[in-house]
Design goal:
- The protein is an alpha/beta fold.
- It folds into 2 domains: 42-146 and 295-321, Response regulator (Rossmann fold), CATH 3.40.50.2300; 149-293 and 325-333, 3-Layer(aba) Sandwich (Rossmann fold).
- The protein has helices at residues 2-38, 54-69, 82-94, 110-120, 149-166, 185-200, 225-228, 245-258, 295-312, 330-333, and strands spanning 42-48, 72-78, 99-103, 123-127, 144-147, 174-179, 208-211, 237-242, 266-272, 287-292, 319-322, 325-328.
- It has a 6-stranded parallel sheet, with helices on both faces. It has a 6-stranded mixed sheet with strand order 7-6-8-9-10-12, with helices on both faces.
- α3 (82-94) runs parallel beside α4 (110-120) and α5 (149-166) crosses α6.
- The termini are far apart.
């Protein structure tokens, strides 16, 4: 009986201690939550060229998701000109922002952006376009997040090779045309990477054409010496890739007209930033598919990098590369 009483007393003591610790733990969590919510929010600026473009709307939406999970306020501004961009950097600083994520900045404005950021104490991250020094080299002092040159070049190469294999075309009479339709050195490098990989896979270099600049779709052929020298019959089939969807489909039609092909002899693929679904007007039988660049991943990662840079002092690497995903057009591949 005495042993039972001692055992019961010990049990009550343990339960009492456990209850006390549990109460303290809940109180600590409640206090911690209250303390965190009472702290001033970390402010991060997000500067875009166009507020309602597909890329901007989806990246901004995902930055809001990050802000909801952390003690962060995202200040979104638009800047269509270089002057507006610099004015917005000043404005963000005056509003208490500690970092500025700049979407698709003018690469040549690199030294000016960096100088302004240093003066204001803003931690700047470039998205989509990588900033350049005066001599044309990359400005590594400003972290960049966007397409990985190596991974993107590899994806483009695989799509071209798979198309060649499954379309039963004659390699000797197939031309490969890469279109760079924006002032973006990363896009140019991706195309050059794809060209070099294709050469390693025994694709003749003379059959690969890269258009560095395209002032207008109608002048694409005239603006490239290699294309301008091509005669009717030199190539019976074309595989075309470009970073701008509308420009690429337009050029596909122009190439067919110029070299007297039917559209079935033209196979093309392009890039999109919207979700990986096809609308009715995107299911033409000569559209191979899309390289899907996930804007949500880019937006979330950019804000996450800025947040860690502010709170932990972890400056992002010079480049953070994103791999695009190839989404096949079901109509094109149905009979392949």
């Amino acid at each position: 009986m005495k042993k039972q009483l001692i055992h019961m007393a010990s049990l009550l003591t343990v339960l009492s201690l456990a209850f006390s610790l549990s109460s303290c733990s809940k109180a600590d969590k409640k206090q911690k939550k209250k303390t965190t919510s009472s702290l001033p929010k970390i402010k991060v600026g997000y500067i875009v060229k166009e507020l309602y473009s597909k890329f901007s709307t989806e990246t901004i939406a995902t930055t809001d998701k990050f802000a909801a999970l952390h003690n962060v306020e995202i200040i979104v501004t638009t800047a269509k000109t270089n002057k507006a961009l610099l004015v917005n950097m000043d404005k963000l600083h005056s509003e208490g922002a500690e970092s500025a994520v700049i979407s698709a900045p003018n690469p040549d404005l690199g030294p000016v952006i960096y100088s302004r950021a240093e003066r204001l104490g803003l931690k700047v991250i470039a998205v989509k376009n990588r900033l350049l020094n005066i001599d044309g080299s990359y400005l590594n002092k400003v972290p960049y997040i966007g397409l990985s040159v190596e991974k993107t070049g590899n994806v483009i190469t695989k799509v071209v090779l798979e198309t060649l294999k499954n379309s039963a075309v004659d390699l000797s009479t197939t031309g490969i045309l890469f279109l760079k339709s924006e002032d973006n050195s990363i896009f140019q490098e991706c195309l050059e990477e794809a060209r070099d990989r294709l050469k390693q896979n025994n694709i003749p270099e003379k059959s690969i054409f890269i258009c560095n600049t395209i002032p207008a779709p109608d002048s694409v052929i005239a603006s490239n010496e290699g294309l301008a020298r091509i005669k009717d019959g030199d190539y019976k089939t074309w595989i075309i890739f470009g970073f701008n969807a509308k420009m690429t489909s337009k050029v596909a039609e122009l190439v067919a007209t110029k070299y007297r092909h039917t559209l079935k002899d033209i196979h093309y693929f392009t890039v999109r930033y919207a979700r990986n679904t096809y609308s009715k007007n995107e299911t033409s039988e000569n559209l191979i598919g899309f390289l899907y660049i996930n804007p949500e991943k880019i937006g979330y990662s950019a804000i996450d990098l800025a947040y860690k840079w502010i709170t932990k002092g972890e400056k992002p690497p010079a480049t953070t590369g994103i791999k695009p995903k190839f989404i096949k057009n079901p109509n094109y591949w149905a009979n392949k």
